[in-house]
Each structure stands twice: as C-alpha cells, then as structure tokens.
Design brief:
Blueprint lengths: L42 E2 L13 E2 L4 H12 L1 H11 L11 H9 L21 E2 L2 E8 L2 E2 L1 H6 L1 H12 L10 E7 L3 E6 L6 E9 L15 E5 L2 E3 L7 E3 L5 E5 L5 E9 L5 H16 L6
Antiparallel strand pairs: 1-2, 3-7, 4-5, 4-6, 6-13, 7-12, 8-11, 8-13, 9-10, 9-12
C-alpha cells in the first residue's frame, strides 16, 4: 500500500453533535485544528471619534499579527480602491494617462475569473448566491494571477508584502480577490472549509443606505457571522472567522465592493503552517483538492 507522507491529517470519527440549539460555533466543512482561539469577528466597529481625532481600531485580544495586517491594508485603501475603479470599471481615478489609454482601459477591463456556480469548488455543491457576484482574483486557490498584478500593481505589492512576511494564507484554500456583490444579491449561509485562516474584508465601495431593511433589524447591506451582524464602512477592515456560519446580503440597488484577503490564523505556528502547506500540496498533486 502507498505510504502516507509525514505531513498528513488524521480523520477522526467524532461524537454525535447538537445541531439545532441556536448556538453558533466554528463548524468548518473539511479540516479543524484544535486549540485555536475562536471568535466570529476579530474586529469591532471603530467608535465615533472626536473632531479631528482618529479613533483606535479595536482588534480581538489586541493581537499584533492581525493588527499589523489591518493597518497595512487600511493604509493602502485609497490606492487599492483607485486600482479597482481603473482595472475593473475603466474609471481613471487620478492616473496620469492620456485619453487613448483611458479608452483602451475601458475596452479591456479585468474579467471575472472564478465561476461561483461551479460544483465541487470551495463553496460546496450548489450555487451559493442569488443575483450577481463577481470575483477578480490576485490569489486564486493558492495561485497568483500575473494579469491582475500588472493592472493593479499597488494592490499586488501590498499583498506580496503580506506573503513575504508569512501572513498570507497561501495554500490551495487561499484567496485574495475583489469581491463585487451587486444590488439585490445575496450569499447564502455557509461555513468555510477550515479554521486555519482568518478572512479580511477591506471595503472599497459600500452602498448608501437609509436605515433598516423594510422594518427588519438587519441593515440593507451587511454580513452575519455567527450571531453577529455587521455593516461595512469604506476603508475600515473587517476580520472574521469564516469557519462560523456566515451570510451576506445587498438589498440596495448599488454594488458592494471589497478586497478580500485570507491570512493565517495567528495561533497556527510557523512549523504547523509549513506542514499544513505540505499536506495540502500533496492532496493537490493527488487531485483530491484544487481546480
């Protein structure tokens, strides 16, 4: 029989589970590493600031790893948003190009590159969304997209620095992409495949809303992770654990756009990251995961 590699996982038959208590807990669909700190949301909305005073972001556990990632992304918000407008929508947002370059850009936008309707992908066997949801990926299932990098160099550089410093979740389950959820669209409740990563949202375009959604408690555009409901604020990163059940909705008539970046859970040690990477690469070579 074939010898399993040293870096392999053990499949454990667990006990019966209570599934209808209404209590939200991490429930990844594929792989779980015990002992990691667990919260649905790792960021809290910044409190109102005084005039001319910037409020300090609140990061769970004051974790320095997560805080550093948030600071890096937020500090590059303006450049990342400008590159999205330029590369995807063909809108010149301050680039020093001539009219001919503008026309070329509008005729050759980045195209969506991930079929969210495909079966067998990360997001289970059925279409996960209703309406329109587009991905423009720099990191797709652990592989970098050079075309994205050429059109969005500042965004790519920011993500590359995270990768260089070991923060980027660069496994076959690692993603970084512009996520565009059009108006009157939803992403159904689901859980991510593992608890090894945290998912960062950097909101670039957030629809204007006028209160709650037809008298409901939830806003017109938002995300629920576990029992926590959150609205996005442009330029303010949101960090979540997607191994909790989560869903997204945009009941406005405007698009919601964000840069999504997967990072390692800070409690996964360096040696564990290396061995997990080996394990997933072996599984991809065998054709068990990946495209």
């Amino acid at each position: 029989p074939e010898q399993h590699p040293e870096d392999s996982a053990t499949v454990v038959q667990g006990p019966s589970l209570l599934t209808s208590t209404g209590v939200h807990r991490p429930s990844p669909s594929l792989f779980q590493l015990p002992g990691l700190r667990s919260l649905p949301m790792w960021t809290a909305p910044s409190p109102p600031s005084g005039e001319g005073v910037k409020s300090r972001r609140r990061i769970a556990y004051n974790d320095p790893f997560v805080s550093d990632v948030v600071q890096r992304l937020e500090s590059n918000f303006s450049s990342i948003k400008a590159e999205y407008l330029d590369a995807v929508l063909g809108i010149n947002s301050g680039f020093d190009d001539n009219e001919e370059d503008d026309q070329k850009r509008r005729k050759n936008p980045l195209e969506p590159d991930y079929d969210v309707n495909q079966k067998g992908g990360e997001h289970a066997s059925d279409a996960l969304h209703t309406g329109s949801w587009d991905w423009h990926s720099y990191l797709l299932q652990g592989e970098f997209n050079s075309k994205f990098a050429s059109r969005c160099p500042k965004t790519a550089s920011t993500v590359n620095e995270l990768n260089k410093d070991g923060a980027l979740f660069g496994t076959p389950f690692g993603f970084c992409f512009f996520s565009t959820l059009m108006g009157q669209s939803t992403i159904k409740p689901h859980t991510g495949p593992m608890n090894l990563r945290l998912r960062v949202h950097l909101p670039l375009i957030v629809p204007t809303t006028d209160g709650k959604n037809n008298g409901n408690e939830r806003p017109k555009c938002g995300i629920r992770v576990g029992s926590k409901i959150h609205e996005w604020k442009e330029g303010e990163a949101l960090v979540l654990d997607d191994s909790y059940e989560h869903e997204v909705w945009n009941d406005t008539n405007e698009p919601r756009v964000l840069l999504l970046v997967d990072i390692w859970h800070p409690d996964v040690s360096i040696i564990e990251r290396e061995r997990i990477g080996h394990m997933f690469e072996y599984a991809r070579e065998k054709g068990w995961i990946g495209r």
